[in-house]
Amino acid sequence: MAEPTGSSLLPGLTVAVTGASGNVGTALLRALADAGVTEVRGLARRRPPETAPYAGVRWYTADLGTPESEPVLAEFLDGVDAVVHSAWALIPDRDPERLQRVNIEGTRRVLAAAAAAGVTHVVHLSSIGTYAAGPQTHPVNEDWPTTGVPSSQYSRLKAECERMLRAFDAANPGTTVTAIRPTLVLQPDAASEIGRYFLGPVLFPAARALPAPVAGVVAKVLPLPIPDLSIGVVHADDVADVIARALDRRAGGAFNVTAPPNFDAAGLAGALGMKRVAVPAVVLRTGMQAAFLSRLLQIEPGWLDLGLGVPPMDTTRARTVLGWRAKHSGGDVLRDFVAALGAGHGGEGPLLHPGTGPEHTPA
Questions:
Q1: Per-residue pLDDT tens for 244-280?
Q2: What are the tens digits of pLDDT across the range 294-332?
Q3: Which of 112, 151, 295, 355 is 20 to 30 A from residue 93's alpha carbon, by CA?
Q4: What gap in Å lies between CA 19 and CA 25, rounded to an integer?
Q5: What's the chain's average pLDDT?
């Protein structure tokens, strides 16, 4: 939450959040509750339980991938000051038409409803995935091209959403438009759900069911690609903090969000207490493609291309404009997440529940 700077805008705002029961959405509900926001509205495909931070939120249910969501959106956004659009269908990669309906047409519906309702601040949860491939040696700022990595379906969709956002910005000069571009967003409470998302309903339970001696050996090695990669992670609460600060200051434009340090392959393995096994990227990609086609893996190999292609990010703008700094180091986020994954944490809550609707895990 942003420190007070004279008079804070947040307590007087009515804020609507799409994807409000997801990874970032849940963290944002916590931040808005702490800030004393006047009214928070949440949109999801299913209503979460009346427990913190979901209790006290005015809930609406809709599938943004269908035209039937349009009257719900009109009511959802009627009279609100700001909308944070964090809804996103991450899977199934093998159903591109479904992803197009929810992510592209759904975003189009949210923007159209925001314009019709006269919402004065639109915040879109974008991603590092919107960036074009670039150097792995130095961070880039928000001016880096947002044309995406063509072989990654996720990246293409994120880049298309930002094109729509720019068109919306040009057509609505009275509305502040903000794009939040985080790297991989993690939190321990969502560990099992994220694991199921990426490994799928076959590989994830199989990995959890390995005998202890075998699991102990597997857990000490980490196959990582050659050439090297560069990856950052950030805690969901730190992403929520950026969004809350942008709402509080009504700050427009794009903001990169990541936590130090940025990991190369050796650093990533070291942070996890594992040994790196170098594998040519083409071998990893071929294996991912085979697993994807055989339905053992839920994510397409374009995710590997994205990880190898996108450059590290410079967060100077978030620091100078919003006064933001990550409270959680990347190493701590990774270690806590992996520990929670191994312990099976996060299985009972609504966070990122597979197959239930548009939620969001940026990468």
A1: 999 999 999 999 999 998 888 888 888 777 788 888 9
A2: 888 888 999 999 989 999 999 999 999 999 999 999 989
A3: 112
A4: 6
A5: 86
CA–CA gap between residue 124 and residue 104 (Å, rounded) = 13
For the stretch 37-42, contacts whose Cβ atoms lie closer than 8 Å and that sit 24 or more positions apart, written own/partner, are 37/10, 37/11, 37/13, 38/11, 38/12, 38/13, 38/14, 39/14, 39/15, 40/14, 40/15, 40/16, 41/14, 41/15, 41/16, 41/17, 41/76, 41/80, 42/16, 42/17
Residues 6+ apart with CB under 8 A from 241: 1, 2, 31, 324, 327
* Domains defined for the chain, CATH in brackets: 10-189+231-262+310-328 (3.40.50.720), 190-227+266-304 (no CATH)
User: In this predicted model, what pLDDT tens digit does every residue of 13-36 receive, in sequence order?
Assistant: 999 999 999 999 999 999 999 999
Measure the CA–CA gap between 337 and 184, rounded to whole angstroms: 12
Rounded to whole angstroms, the Cα distance separating 207 from 66 reads: 36
Cβ neighbors of 157 (< 8 A, separation 6 or more) are: 99, 100, 103, 104
- Distance separating alpha carbons of residues 160 and 301, to the nearest angstrom: 20
Alpha helices for 36-150 (secondary structure H): 69-77, 96-99, 106-117
User: Residue 297: which of 305, 306, 289, 308 has the closest Cα?
Assistant: 289
Residues near 138 by beta carbon (within 8 Å), at least 6 away in sequence: 311, 312
